[in-house]
Amino acid sequence: MDRLIYTAMTGATQALDQQAVVANNLANASTTGFRAQLANFRSVPMSFGDGSAVNDQTTRTFVLSATPGSDYTPGPISQTGNPLDIAIQGSGWIAVQTPDGNEAYTRAGNLHVDENGQIVTANNLPVIGNGGPIAVPPASQVTIGTDGSVSVLAPGDPPNAIALVDQIKLVNPDANTMMRGDDGLFRPADGNPADQDPNVQVASGSLEGSNVNPVAAMVSMITNARQFQMQTKLIQTADQNEQSANQLLSFS
């Protein structure tokens, strides 16, 4: 009887976990630069015996989580007209500084200048340039080139007085080496900062949307709900069978 209960229990548990991942993806369907999370599962046969192929017996198959990952498919790019909005064209990442002083990476290019004159993300994380966080003169007009170069024009200056102040650090490490943190930012698995890649290009005045497909996410939510109902039904059936067996034993 325990075979049915525990097998169904693992299936129900993983269905709930997958539902949480899909719900988080759906909640971020309109988040700038969001990368959908992937929830993969695998079946694991449970064998008992002395370790030899002859005596080992597979008694049940459990469901376990596989290595989680992310969908790195680029999202749609839309024009905003805001000179501080940038969208990565193709593969690549924008380097930002986390509150602990380390480096992390994002695709969210909705930038702005804070009260300290630093270019920051929507979450107020400083954007990293050649020498650390990028700062611009107050009240200056900021433009960002396709290579991430940051130029400013002071108030009252002629158009030909534009000055280059820094360049956004754009990286493009192997996607298989990237890991998503609890803060939604990505970091290399080895913990070392990625090198700047001059081949990464950005589109100024544009933003990249989330790569979550809302329709596919809704279908996944319905599928997970039905799988969870099926597993709980098996657990209820096992409980009913056990109660019937106890009644028969009590009459014997």
From TrEMBL:
Biased composition (Polar residues): 198-207
Keywords in alphabetical order: Bacterial flagellum, Cell projection, Cilium, Flagellum
Segments passing through the bilayer: none
Sections of the chain in a coiled coil: none
InterPro entries, per database record: Flag_bb_rod_N, Flagellar_basal_body_rod_CS, Flagellar_FlgE/F/G, Flg_bb/hook_C_dom, FlgE/F/G-like, FlgF, LlgE_F_G-like_D1
A GO cellular component entry from the record: bacterial-type flagellum basal body, rod
Domain Flagellar basal-body/hook protein C-terminal: 204-248
Subcellular location: Bacterial flagellum basal body
Broad class of where this protein is predominantly found: other
Domain Flagellar hook protein FlgE/F/G-like D1: residue ranges: 87-152
Region Disordered, residue ranges: 186-207
Residue ranges of domain Flagellar basal body rod protein N-terminal in the record: 5-35
GO BP, sorted A to Z: bacterial-type flagellum-dependent swarming motility
Quaternary structure and partners: The basal body constitutes a major portion of the flagellar organelle and consists of five rings (E,L,P,S, and M) mounted on a central rod. The rod consists of about 26 subunits of FlgG in the distal portion, and FlgB, FlgC and FlgF are thought to build up the proximal portion of the rod with about 6 subunits each.
Sequence similarity: Belongs to the flagella basal body rod proteins family.
Name of the protein in its database record: Flagellar basal-body rod protein FlgF
Organism: Paraburkholderia rhizosphaerae
